[in-house]
Amino acid sequence: MLPIPFLLLLLSSILSPSSAADFCVADLSLPTSPAGFSCKKESTVTISDFVFSGLGVAGNTNNKFKAAVTPAFSPQLPGLNGLGISAARLDIAIGGVVPLHLHPAASEVLVVIQGSIIAGFISSSNSVYYKTLHKGDAIVFPQGLLHFQVQSGGLPAVAFGSFSSPNPGLQIVSLALFANSLPSPLVEKVTFLDDAEVKKLKKVFGGTD
């Protein structure tokens, strides 16, 4: 005889109508929320909502970081909405870097497919974990922790990342500090940098005094 709690659970699952849908394709015409995008009407969904061809194209690394990220998140691939996954391509030119940043809504697995990358993260106890990765190597960045990637060796690096959210979010520390209108005296206080260095970095990243 089956245990009573199991029978109750079984009956509940049989008698209760299912609210699960096969998918919830993002309606990009409506605002997003912390829960994601609203669902498109199923009658308007097409195969294009589930296909993205951009990951086969190298990103433009002609910038101060010499790096580019090509995302395949809900805005690019609406079929990801509600599925808890997404992907991205990372291109880093020689001498390039993806500076300290975090994804508030997702953990990440990064797999190197070309070149070498020094990659690592900093735990909430300020322990540092990093290693030089080569073709075929993978690294995990836990959700919400600061992490980085630096090109290494004589070849441009290419890697693919997968995320545990259709919209991982992104905050780059250097931009958060120096690419905004936070007054320089306050930046100096919270970073312990001197006035000249703060103003130099604000100029580099486009912030204002």
UniProtKB/TrEMBL annotation:
Gene3D superfamilies: Jelly Rolls (2.60.120.10). GO terms for molecular function: manganese ion binding. Residues 1-20 form the signal peptide. Transmembrane segments: none annotated. CDD domains: cupin_OxOx. Keywords: Apoplast, Disulfide bond, Manganese, Metal-binding, Secreted, Signal. Disulfide bonds join 24-39. Oxalate binds at residues 103, 108. Mn(2+) binds at residues 101, 103, 108, 147. Residues 53-199 form the Cupin type-1 domain. One of its GO terms (cellular component) is apoplast. It holds the Pfam family Cupin_1. It is found in: Secreted, Extracellular space, Apoplast. Belongs to the germin family. This is Germin-like protein. It comes from Dendrobium catenatum. The gene is ABP19A.
